[in-house]
Amino acid sequence: MTLPPAMKIDFVSDVSCPWCAIGLESLEAALARIGPSLQAELHFQPFELNPQMVPEGEDIAEHLARKYGASPEQGARAREAIRARGAALGFTFRMDRRSRIYNTFDAHRLLHWAGLEGRQTELKHALFRAYFTDGDNPGAHDVLLRTAAAAGLDVDEAQRVLSSGEYAREVREREAVYQSLGIHAVPAVIVNDRHLIQGGQPVEVFEQALRQIATAS
What pLDDT, on the 0 to 100 scale, is given for residue 19? Predict the structure, then answer.
């Protein structure tokens, strides 16, 4: 019996995006619900929410106020909504540990390399935990090396990638592709290069969409 081709899922996201962490947990829960009848290949694609962010980062409250005009009260409500959504999915957001937002370009370079090594999903989860649960800087090389180790990657090779600037061109090219497709907010989940599911949707929404796409294929 010939098995149907695996569903290709491109998960366009940034490691400093809380709704991306929520979206990934929801998407994986949906795939688990569907079970082995649906084979999926998950690829993480780069998107930088703040590509001009300085290495030392910026205070989150000040950043959100400047970028979105969010008041302290609005920020507090948004953080609580994110914390609750994460908790419902088994992901821990420690808002008390996360006070700054950082540049994530080197994290995307490392994720590109991890994809070549077959450990991209593991690294993505490790990066989300490092930033949102532990409050670490996902642009700092020592943090990136720890996440590489946690993901089962070769730390010496990870150090070489980070020090050399390797995969910068590839990351920029992938970012440009998704920008040209009109992706200006994340997470954006693109299935089989044709179907877009936007945002950190609930598990049920992802499950229904994936089942419909699989049936129509």
Answer: 97
CB atoms under 10 Å from CB of 180, counted, come to: 8
DSSP codes of every residue in 85-106: HHHHTT----GGG--EE---HH
CATH number (domain holding residue 171) = 3.40.30.10
**Interatomic CA distance for residues 177 and 181, integer angstroms:** 6
For the record, the structure tokens of 47 come out as: 């998107």
Looking at the domain assignment, is residue 114 inside a domain?
Answer: yes
Residue appearing with tokens 């497709």? 181
> Could you tell me the two tokens for 186?
């994340």
The reported pLDDT for the residue numbered 204 is 98
What value does the CA radius of gyration of the chain take, rounded to a whole number of Å? 17
| pLDDT tens-digit readout, 81-135 | 999 999 999 999 998 998 899 999 999 999 999 999 999 999 999 999 999 999 9
Strands 58-59 and 100-101: antiparallel
> Which residue range is the domain that position 190 belongs to?
7-52+104-216
Q: Which two tokens stand for residue 35?
A: 């079970």
Query: Is 203 inside a domain boundary?
Result: yes
Residues 6+ apart with CB under 8 A from 170: 112
Q: Count the domains in the chain.
A: 1
User: Do you find a cis peptide bond into 138, omega within 30 degrees of 0?
Assistant: no
